[in-house]
Amino acid sequence: MFKKILIANRGEIALRIIRTCKEMGIKTVAIYSTADRESLHVKFADEAVCIGPPPSRQSYLNIPAIISAAEVTGADAIHPGYGFLSENAEFSRICSEYGIKFIGATAEQINLMGDKATAKATMKIAGVPVIPGSEGLIDTVEDAKRIAKDIVYPVIIKATAGGGGRGMRIIRHEDEFEKLWNDAKMEAANAFGNDGIYMEKYVEEPRHIEIQVVGDQFGKVCHLSERDCSIQRRHQKLCEETPSPALTPELREKMGEAAIKGASAIKYEGAGTVEFLVDKHGDFYFMEMNTRIQVEHPITEEVTDFDLIKEQIKVAAGVAISGQNYTPKLYALECRINAEDPANGFRPSPGKITNLHLPGGHGVRIDSHVYAGYTIPPNYDSMIAKVIVSGQSREEVLLRMKRALQEFVIDGIKTTIPFHIKLMDDERFKSGQFTTAFMENFDLKSL
């Protein structure tokens, strides 16, 4: 087992990893930018190294500085958390070159799944259902129009290196194709330095369902059931739940089997998610694979009593997984609390927290790195906490979440707490009958 792990991340996920390391008797090293000097992950780690100024490129994305910090402190492994370098194949490869274990997927696995066109082709060969679309990248708008006619409108074009909805456009008619094609390519080039575009059939009224998988170094893969991530705004998740109210036991089993097929095809190592779109007919299609721990992993932990961070560390150290597939024993829901003003277009709201009261009680878990007096920097993602509740039924969980949110006090900044409280009372959400288009008709003006 590792003696010392450097956490190449910040905020709540860095603190989350530190907690598990301490429970495993493993020493920890925090890295931080000058903007995060007062963050809790810096205070609670055994050692901390400042690696640069606030901009991510000069700190949390600075591979030479991170490797140097690992070498100076004698860390024998690096946990990348999520975001930043967690799905960076070059970082995984460099860690290996320096004799430092990257706690995550190998460079080859990240490359296979990181390029969406390659990922789709790989899954198709593995027998995983994929959305009808182009065979790889499309060179010209003329080729794209021809393929769209075969697929049948509406279609969606996507940047192969994309994420967060950038480089993505829905096209419903041929006469709007050229403009949207050019817009998507330009956005992709600016955001990712890669204007490669592929096309898929646009799945209408979909649910976004992801299957949690874990694979070891010996070729074994198991799944820990699903998470429903359909409540989104601009392709950014707002809350997640498990089990999904849209899945039958039969569909759950089929999707779990498909996820294992896909992960096994690339001999996946570590924790990851295979993400699907499920249409209104119950047909599901592979969308992408995230080769890292997810923000929403705690809800899976709560319903399976399974520490995913610990499993990541054990797998990276060469410990075999049990190979057992898990099914939820409880219900769980997570609300992401962001430093944003939902009444004003979710505008970021960094600043100093003047007063803080965290909710508690049976079945309530808070993952956060903030405290009273802490100043939220404007340089990074706006998520400052996750409220995770579990219970015996979905109805119980919704009531418990509303109660917990009403107890949650954060003064000095705007947060998404009022939005989540209103969400808990929304009849469409309470019924479980919603799609990824849910937010298009949600009233934010009354918040």
Describe this structure in words.
The protein has three domains: 4-103, Rossmann fold; 132-201, Dna Ligase, domain 1; 207-441, ATP-grasp fold, B domain (D-amino Acid Aminotransferase, Chain A, domain 1). With 447 residues, it is α+β, with helices and mostly antiparallel strands. Helix 4 runs antiparallel to helix 5 (107-114) and helix 12 runs antiparallel to helix 13. The longest helix has 17 residues, at 249-265. Helix 4 links the parallel strand 4 and strand 5 (101-102). It has 14 helices and 22 strands.
Write a concise keyword list for the protein shown above.
14 helices, single chain, Rossmann fold, ATP-binding, biotin, fatty acid metabolism, 33% helix, 447 residues, alpha+beta, Dna Ligase, domain 1
Care to give the gist of this entry?
The protein is an alpha+beta fold and 447 residues long. It has helices at 11-23, 40-44, 63-73, 89-97, 107-114, 116-126, 141-151, 177-192, 249-265, 297-304, 308-316, 394-407, 417-425, 427-431; strands spanning 4-7, 27-33, 47-52, 77-79, 101-102, 155-159, 168-171, 197-201, 207-215, 221-233, 236-242, 270-278, 284-290, 331-338, 340-341, 347-348, 351-352, 355-357, 364-368, 375-376, 383-391, 409-411.
